[in-house]
Specification:
This protein has a single domain, classed as Jelly Rolls (Sandwich). Helix content is 12%, strand content 48%. The chain has 1 helix and 10 strands; from the N terminus they run H-E-E-E-E-E-E-E-E-E-E. The strands form 3 sheets. It has a 4-stranded antiparallel sheet with strand order 1-10-4-7, covered by helices on one side. It has a 4-stranded antiparallel sheet with strand order 3-8-5-6, with no helix packed on it. Strand 5 and strand 6 form a beta hairpin. The longest helix has 19 residues. The protein is globular, with a radius of gyration of 16 Å.
Length: 161
């Protein structure tokens, strides 16, 4: 029964994510659950994706699931990207999870979900990329983070980035 409910939850969650950005074509997306909803600084999820079309503009975004136990207004991430040729690039990203008045930016009741389009990107090489998401907050343990993930979308041709 436990596996059945998790499967139903996963299907509903995927459909809701896809419906949020229905005008976009997903090139890649993945999420990693945070053990015990406590993101330890030494837990750095890694995701792998392939890019074939280097001529397109893409949007890179992050999906953060969190609850009210998260103590901060925002979440800083170190985003480590490894290119197909082995070159590595690291960027720092801030995602606002709560407004200054304390209300959440994500949708949902007990667990909030925020899909944050972070930047427009062009991929210079065809092949397999790796992306790692590292929490970059001052606390070594972040309570209230349920899962983190990324997505790469390709907007419709008539939409400007």
């Amino acid at each position: 029964m436990k596996y059945f409910s998790l499967s139903i939850f996963s299907i509903v969650l995927m459909l809701s994510i896809m419906s949020c950005q229905s005008n976009y074509d997903y090139v890649a997306q993945d999420n990693a659950d945070i053990p015990h909803m406590q993101w330890e600084s030494n837990y750095i999820p890694m995701f792998t994706y392939n890019i074939q079309d280097t001529g397109k503009d893409y949007i890179l975004g992050f999906c953060i699931r969190y609850n009210n136990d998260y103590p901060n207004e925002n979440l800083y991430l170190f985003v480590h990207t490894q290119f197909p040729n082995g070159q590595q690039y690291t960027d720092t990203v801030s995602v606002d999870l709560f407004y200054p008045d304390g209300s959440p930016t994500g949708t949902g009741k007990n667990i909030r979900e925020l899909n944050a389009n972070v930047s427009k990107v062009k991929f210079p090489q065809q092949g397999t990329y790796h992306i790692q998401l590292e929490q970059a907050m001052r606390n070594s343990t972040l309570n209230g983070i349920v899962s983190v993930g990324y997505y790469i979308i390709c907007p419709p041709k008539n939409e400007k980035l």
